[in-house]
Protein backbone atom coordinates (compact mmCIF):
# COMPACT_ATOMS: atom_id res chain seq x y z
CA UNK A 1 0.00 0.00 0.00
CA UNK A 2 1.51 3.31 -1.09
CA UNK A 3 1.83 6.01 1.57
CA UNK A 4 0.79 9.61 0.92
CA UNK A 5 1.46 12.72 3.02
CA UNK A 6 -1.12 15.52 2.75
CA UNK A 7 0.13 19.09 3.20
CA UNK A 8 -2.98 21.25 3.46
CA UNK A 9 -4.15 24.01 5.81
CA UNK A 10 -7.89 23.61 5.12
CA UNK A 11 -8.77 20.94 7.67
CA UNK A 12 -12.13 19.88 6.23
CA UNK A 13 -10.73 19.55 2.72
CA UNK A 14 -7.75 17.59 4.02
CA UNK A 15 -10.00 15.17 5.92
CA UNK A 16 -12.17 14.65 2.83
CA UNK A 17 -9.10 14.04 0.72
CA UNK A 18 -7.82 11.56 3.28
CA UNK A 19 -11.10 9.61 3.14
CA UNK A 20 -10.98 9.52 -0.66
CA UNK A 21 -7.36 8.36 -0.74
CA UNK A 22 -8.11 5.56 1.71
CA UNK A 23 -11.02 4.41 -0.46
CA UNK A 24 -8.62 4.37 -3.43
CA UNK A 25 -6.29 2.08 -1.49
CA UNK A 26 -3.65 4.53 -0.28
CA UNK A 27 -2.41 5.01 3.29
CA UNK A 28 -2.36 8.63 4.50
CA UNK A 29 0.61 9.00 6.82
CA UNK A 30 -0.34 12.46 8.14
CA UNK A 31 -2.12 15.75 7.46
CA UNK A 32 0.20 18.70 8.09
CA UNK A 33 -0.50 22.39 7.58
CA UNK A 34 2.96 24.03 7.73
CA UNK A 35 6.42 23.55 6.28
CA UNK A 36 8.34 23.22 9.53
CA UNK A 37 6.29 20.24 10.69
CA UNK A 38 6.53 18.63 7.25
CA UNK A 39 10.34 18.67 7.38
CA UNK A 40 10.28 17.22 10.89
CA UNK A 41 7.86 14.51 9.77
CA UNK A 42 10.11 13.51 6.87
CA UNK A 43 12.93 12.87 9.33
CA UNK A 44 10.73 10.20 10.90
CA UNK A 45 9.81 8.44 7.67
CA UNK A 46 9.48 8.92 3.92
CA UNK A 47 6.09 8.70 2.16
CA UNK A 48 5.72 7.46 -1.41
CA UNK A 49 4.16 10.75 -2.52
CA UNK A 50 3.24 14.19 -1.17
CA UNK A 51 0.09 16.11 -2.08
CA UNK A 52 1.16 19.72 -1.53
CA UNK A 53 -1.13 22.72 -1.27
CA UNK A 54 0.58 25.89 -2.49
CA UNK A 55 -0.74 28.21 0.21
CA UNK A 56 -0.05 26.72 3.64
CA UNK A 57 0.55 28.01 7.15
CA UNK A 58 3.99 29.19 8.28
CA UNK A 59 6.86 31.22 6.90
CA UNK A 60 7.17 29.39 3.56
CA UNK A 61 4.56 28.36 1.01
CA UNK A 62 4.20 24.97 -0.63
CA UNK A 63 6.45 25.83 -3.57
CA UNK A 64 9.40 26.85 -1.40
CA UNK A 65 8.77 23.80 0.77
CA UNK A 66 8.90 21.58 -2.33
CA UNK A 67 12.33 23.04 -3.17
CA UNK A 68 13.58 22.14 0.31
CA UNK A 69 12.19 18.63 0.06
CA UNK A 70 13.65 17.99 -3.40
CA UNK A 71 17.07 19.07 -2.12
CA UNK A 72 17.09 16.26 0.43
CA UNK A 73 14.67 13.55 -0.68
CA UNK A 74 13.51 11.73 -3.78
CA UNK A 75 9.75 12.00 -3.29
CA UNK A 76 7.15 12.67 -6.01
CA UNK A 77 5.10 15.82 -5.35
CA UNK A 78 1.64 16.69 -6.63
CA UNK A 79 0.66 20.33 -6.17
CA UNK A 80 -2.89 21.05 -5.02
CA UNK A 81 -4.26 24.55 -5.41
CA UNK A 82 -7.26 26.69 -6.23
CA UNK A 83 -5.07 29.32 -7.91
CA UNK A 84 -4.06 29.58 -11.55
CA UNK A 85 -2.14 32.85 -11.25
CA UNK A 86 0.75 33.16 -13.70
CA UNK A 87 3.12 34.01 -10.83
CA UNK A 88 2.47 30.66 -9.16
CA UNK A 89 2.68 28.73 -12.42
CA UNK A 90 6.03 30.29 -13.30
CA UNK A 91 7.46 29.45 -9.87
CA UNK A 92 6.22 25.87 -10.13
CA UNK A 93 7.70 25.50 -13.63
CA UNK A 94 11.19 25.95 -12.17
CA UNK A 95 10.97 22.90 -9.92
CA UNK A 96 10.76 19.19 -10.64
CA UNK A 97 7.28 18.00 -9.73
CA UNK A 98 5.09 15.13 -10.83
CA UNK A 99 1.54 16.51 -10.93
CA UNK A 100 -0.77 19.51 -10.60
CA UNK A 101 -4.30 19.21 -9.25
CA UNK A 102 -6.68 22.16 -9.44
CA UNK A 103 -9.41 22.64 -6.83
CA UNK A 104 -12.17 21.57 -6.97
CA UNK A 105 -11.24 18.19 -8.44
CA UNK A 106 -13.19 15.07 -9.34
CA UNK A 107 -12.47 11.54 -8.18
CA UNK A 108 -11.42 10.52 -11.69
CA UNK A 109 -9.10 13.52 -11.94
CA UNK A 110 -7.47 12.62 -8.61
CA UNK A 111 -7.03 8.97 -9.62
CA UNK A 112 -5.48 9.91 -12.95
CA UNK A 113 -3.21 12.53 -11.41
CA UNK A 114 -1.79 10.11 -8.83
CA UNK A 115 -1.35 7.33 -11.38
CA UNK A 116 0.54 9.61 -13.76
CA UNK A 117 2.58 11.11 -10.91
CA UNK A 118 3.92 7.72 -9.86
CA UNK A 119 4.61 6.82 -13.50
CA UNK A 120 6.45 10.10 -14.13
CA UNK A 121 8.54 9.74 -10.99
CA UNK A 122 9.55 6.19 -11.88
CA UNK A 123 10.47 7.31 -15.40
CA UNK A 124 12.73 10.03 -13.98
CA UNK A 125 14.43 7.51 -11.69
CA UNK A 126 15.12 5.13 -14.56
CA UNK A 127 16.38 7.98 -16.76
CA UNK A 128 19.30 8.65 -14.40
CA UNK A 129 22.32 6.93 -15.97
CA UNK A 130 23.71 4.04 -13.96
CA UNK A 131 27.39 4.97 -14.23
CA UNK A 132 30.10 2.48 -13.38
CA UNK A 133 32.47 5.31 -12.51
CA UNK A 134 32.12 8.80 -11.08
CA UNK A 135 34.27 11.34 -12.92
CA UNK A 136 36.09 13.51 -10.38
CA UNK A 137 38.58 16.30 -11.12
CA UNK A 138 41.55 15.97 -8.77
CA UNK A 139 44.63 18.23 -8.94
CA UNK A 140 44.03 19.04 -12.59
CA UNK A 141 43.32 15.44 -13.65
CA UNK A 142 39.98 13.82 -14.45
CA UNK A 143 39.82 10.67 -12.32
CA UNK A 144 37.24 7.93 -13.08
CA UNK A 145 36.46 6.64 -9.57
CA UNK A 146 34.76 3.19 -9.56
CA UNK A 147 31.34 3.54 -7.96
CA UNK A 148 31.73 0.28 -6.05
CA UNK A 149 34.74 1.82 -4.26
CA UNK A 150 32.77 4.82 -2.98
CA UNK A 151 31.82 4.26 0.67
CA UNK A 152 29.88 7.46 1.32
CA UNK A 153 29.33 11.11 0.40
CA UNK A 154 29.51 14.00 2.84
CA UNK A 155 28.07 17.49 2.36
CA UNK A 156 30.57 20.31 2.91
CA UNK A 157 28.75 23.55 2.15
CA UNK A 158 28.73 24.03 -1.64
CA UNK A 159 31.16 21.13 -1.97
CA UNK A 160 30.86 17.37 -1.49
CA UNK A 161 33.47 15.04 -0.02
CA UNK A 162 33.51 11.70 -1.81
CA UNK A 163 35.01 9.03 0.45
CA UNK A 164 36.40 5.91 -1.23
CA UNK A 165 38.24 2.81 -0.06
CA UNK A 166 41.54 4.45 -0.96
CA UNK A 167 41.23 8.21 -0.44
CA UNK A 168 38.75 11.10 -0.14
CA UNK A 169 38.04 13.55 -2.95
CA UNK A 170 36.41 16.98 -2.86
CA UNK A 171 33.91 17.80 -5.61
CA UNK A 172 32.73 21.33 -6.43
CA UNK A 173 29.04 20.35 -6.43
CA UNK A 174 26.41 20.12 -3.71
CA UNK A 175 25.57 16.71 -2.29
CA UNK A 176 22.26 16.42 -4.17
CA UNK A 177 23.87 16.98 -7.58
CA UNK A 178 26.62 14.43 -6.98
CA UNK A 179 24.10 11.86 -5.70
CA UNK A 180 22.04 12.16 -8.90
CA UNK A 181 25.01 10.68 -10.80
CA UNK A 182 24.93 7.52 -8.67
CA UNK A 183 22.55 4.53 -8.74
CA UNK A 184 19.78 5.21 -6.19
CA UNK A 185 19.39 1.49 -5.42
CA UNK A 186 22.89 1.47 -3.88
CA UNK A 187 23.19 4.90 -2.28
CA UNK A 188 20.92 5.88 0.63
CA UNK A 189 20.51 9.32 2.16
CA UNK A 190 20.66 8.51 5.88
CA UNK A 191 21.12 12.11 7.05
CA UNK A 192 20.85 15.59 5.52
CA UNK A 193 24.66 15.64 5.23
CA UNK A 194 25.44 11.99 4.42
CA UNK A 195 24.69 9.48 1.69
CA UNK A 196 26.12 5.97 2.08
CA UNK A 197 26.78 3.04 -0.22
CA UNK A 198 24.75 0.09 1.15
CA UNK A 199 27.47 -2.32 0.08
CA UNK A 200 29.93 -0.76 2.54
CA UNK A 201 27.71 -0.62 5.64
CA UNK A 202 29.45 -2.52 8.44
CA UNK A 203 26.83 -2.01 11.17
CA UNK A 204 24.32 0.49 12.54
CA UNK A 205 22.07 1.33 15.44
CA UNK A 206 19.32 3.90 16.01
CA UNK A 207 21.72 6.86 16.05
CA UNK A 208 24.73 6.08 13.87
CA UNK A 209 26.13 3.86 11.18
CA UNK A 210 29.55 2.36 10.44
CA UNK A 211 30.50 2.70 6.80
CA UNK A 212 34.01 1.76 5.75
CA UNK A 213 36.19 2.98 8.64
CA UNK A 214 33.97 5.95 9.58
CA UNK A 215 30.99 6.45 11.89
CA UNK A 216 28.27 8.76 10.53
CA UNK A 217 24.94 9.88 12.07
CA UNK A 218 21.51 8.59 11.07
CA UNK A 219 18.59 11.00 10.84
CA UNK A 220 16.03 10.62 13.62
CA UNK A 221 13.48 7.89 13.06
CA UNK A 222 15.28 6.33 10.06
CA UNK A 223 16.51 3.19 11.86
CA UNK A 224 13.48 0.97 11.11
CA UNK A 225 13.39 1.98 7.44
CA UNK A 226 17.12 1.35 7.07
CA UNK A 227 16.78 -2.03 8.75
CA UNK A 228 14.10 -3.04 6.24
CA UNK A 229 16.35 -1.99 3.34
CA UNK A 230 19.28 -4.03 4.60
CA UNK A 231 17.17 -7.11 5.33
CA UNK A 232 15.56 -6.90 1.88
CA UNK A 233 19.01 -7.13 0.27
CA UNK A 234 19.97 -10.28 2.15
TrEMBL record:
Residues 134-232 form the HTH LytTR-type domain. The modification 4-aspartylphosphate is found at residue 53. SUPFAM superfamilies: CheY-like. The keyword Amino-acid biosynthesis does not apply. Keywords: Phosphoprotein. Residues 3-118 form the Response regulatory domain. This is LytR/AlgR family response regulator transcription factor.
Amino acid sequence: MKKILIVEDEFELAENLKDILQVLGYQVTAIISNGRDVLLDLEMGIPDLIIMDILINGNIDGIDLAYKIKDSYQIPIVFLTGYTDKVYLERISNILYEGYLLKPFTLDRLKSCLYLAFKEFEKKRKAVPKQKTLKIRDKGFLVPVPINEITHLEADGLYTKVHTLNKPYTVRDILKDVAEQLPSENFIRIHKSYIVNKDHIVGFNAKELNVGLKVVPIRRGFYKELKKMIIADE
